[in-house]
């Protein structure tokens, strides 16, 4: 955070860690209803949590809001406020590239044009049965919250990754070779580790 003022919004249990790094801390809502119809009883909807963040954003006037791919309230709040937003992805890039295997399968990339053509031909069947059912469900839930915020519905993927900036915190050699979009950058693995007591190994030395 050299030469920048950084505020971390996270669960209260991380306050000491964040402040120990000389960063500002703001407590995050720990329970959010993804389905607006399930909100209530002190649990805000995703849209409600985004609205609750507006005063903080107005106070900070940040240049950029960064959240991980599952933490959508800050991303929606930033979009409502017109603030650039980025997504931190702490694992391989989860967007399918035509001609490559579906990434969760862990298969090696094809080595020949025939192999790439085969994956292109298989993708409509695989894509319909494996990821798209979940993506449609996630997209529908996000769109319901976006409607409450006055935002347009999603037209691509599932809205969990910013199209302005995506930081993929992984090892380059774990990624499939692909044509990287201009807004996607591999940053290398995240090196931050908390101190933790030694773990006893059965049968090992004391």
Quickly list its features.
single chain, 206 residues, alpha/beta, four-stranded parallel sheet, two-stranded parallel ribbon, 6 strands, 32% helix
Write structural notes for this entry.
The chain is an alpha/beta fold and 206 residues long. 32% of the residues lie in helices and 11% in strands. It is built from 6 helices and 6 strands. The protein has a 4-stranded parallel β-sheet. Helix 2 (46-52) packs across helix 4 (72-81). The longest helix has 18 residues, at 131-148. The mean pLDDT is 86.
Task: Tell me the number of helical segments per DSSP (H or I, 4 or more residues long).
Answer: 6
- The helix-strand sequence is EHEHHEHEHHEE
Please state the CA-atom Rg, rounded to the nearest Å.
20 Å
- In helices, the fraction of residues equals 25-40%
What form results from the Cα inertia axes? globular
The largest β sheet comes out as: 4 strands, parallel
- Give the CA-CA distance, first to last residue: 40 Å
Instruction: List the strand order in the largest sheet.
Output: 3-4-5-6
**Class from secondary-structure proportions:** alpha/beta
